[in-house]
């Protein structure tokens, strides 16, 4: 048919223009084949490993004083709103501290709760000078609580060998610091076991 001849002529002319160095016999040989596979090899993209953002080391955090509270910020009144937020957080966590609430249920939730903003009192201690210290927890570390007192003094109280009490809506809970030697983030995932007697 005339159309096929035109197509053949067009392809021949196209190949001749595209590959001027190729002989007519080679072009004709290509045309007699059933199919011409045009191969294309894309460049392989090297996978770039996702760069992890490195945080500060413990030494760098100490040098930058990231966790230190400036003396002018060490005032009890500044952190009272934090305490109000903490009270609402605990009420929501425990679905309201009602008189008929199960103490074990509340206690288990408090064990894993965030204590930043809670008002605590040292009720027992092997070191008598710690007994009676009351204030808002500003920072919780693995081994210590940083507490701001009503006298605007920042106290660093170790957890070990101390018993703390906190009161909310008439519910008083006791924290045995020796069994609480965990960071707040680790404590939320820990399973606590009930024990009959606990010593300092």
UniProtKB/TrEMBL annotation:
One of the record's GO cellular component terms: ribonuclease P complex
Principal place of residence: nucleus
Subcellular location: Nucleus, Nucleolus
GO annotation terms (biological process): rRNA processing; tRNA 5'-leader removal
Keyword Repressor on entry: no
Superkingdom of origin organism: Eukaryota
Gene3D superfamilies in alphabetical order: Ribonuclease P/MRP, subunit p29
GO molecular function: ribonuclease P RNA binding
InterPro entries documented for this protein: RNase_P/MRP_Rpp29-subunit (IPR016848), RNase_P/MRP_Rpp29_sf (IPR036980), Rof/RNase_P-like (IPR023534), Rpp29/RNP1 (IPR002730)
Listed Pfam families: RNase_P-MRP_p29 (PF01868)
Keywords attached to this entry: Nucleus, Phosphoprotein, tRNA processing
Function: Component of ribonuclease P, a ribonucleoprotein complex that generates mature tRNA molecules by cleaving their 5'-ends.
Record text on subunit structure and interactions: Component of nuclear RNase P and RNase MRP ribonucleoproteins. RNase P consists of a catalytic RNA moiety and 10 different protein chains; POP1, POP4, POP5, POP7, RPP14, RPP21, RPP25, RPP30, RPP38 and RPP40. Within the RNase P complex, POP1, POP7 and RPP25 form the 'finger' subcomplex, POP5, RPP14, RPP40 and homodimeric RPP30 form the 'palm' subcomplex, and RPP21, POP4 and RPP38 form the 'wrist' subcomplex. All subunits of the RNase P complex interact with the catalytic RNA. Several subunits of RNase P are also part of the RNase MRP complex.
PANTHER family to which the protein is assigned, alphabetical: RIBONUCLEASE P PROTEIN SUBUNIT P29, RIBONUCLEASE P SUBUNIT P29
Family: Belongs to the eukaryotic/archaeal RNase P protein component 1 family.
Protein name: Ribonuclease P protein subunit p29
Gene of this entry: Pop4
């Amino acid at each position: 048919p005339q159309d096929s001849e035109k197509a053949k002529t067009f392809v021949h002319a196209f190949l001749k223009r595209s590959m001027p160095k190729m002989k007519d016999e080679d072009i004709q040989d290509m045309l007699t084949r059933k199919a011409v596979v045009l191969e294309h090899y894309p460049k392989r993209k090297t996978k770039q490993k996702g760069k992890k953002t490195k945080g500060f080391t413990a030494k760098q955090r100490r040098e930058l004083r990231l966790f230190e509270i400036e003396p002018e910020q060490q005032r009890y009144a500044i952190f009272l709103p934090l305490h109000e937020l903490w009270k609402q957080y605990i009420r929501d966590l425990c679905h309201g501290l009602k008189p008929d609430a199960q103490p074990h249920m509340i206690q288990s939730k408090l064990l894993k709760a965030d204590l930043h903003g809670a008002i605590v009192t040292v009720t027992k201690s092997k070191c008598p000078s710690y007994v009676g210290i009351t204030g808002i927890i500003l920072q919780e570390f693995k081994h210590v609580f940083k507490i701001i007192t009503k006298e605007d003094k920042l106290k660093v109280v170790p957890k070990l060998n101390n018993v703390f009490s906190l009161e909310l809506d008439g519910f008083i809970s006791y924290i045995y610091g020796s069994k609480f030697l965990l960071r707040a983030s680790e404590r939320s995932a820990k399973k606590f076991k009930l024990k009959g007697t606990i010593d300092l």
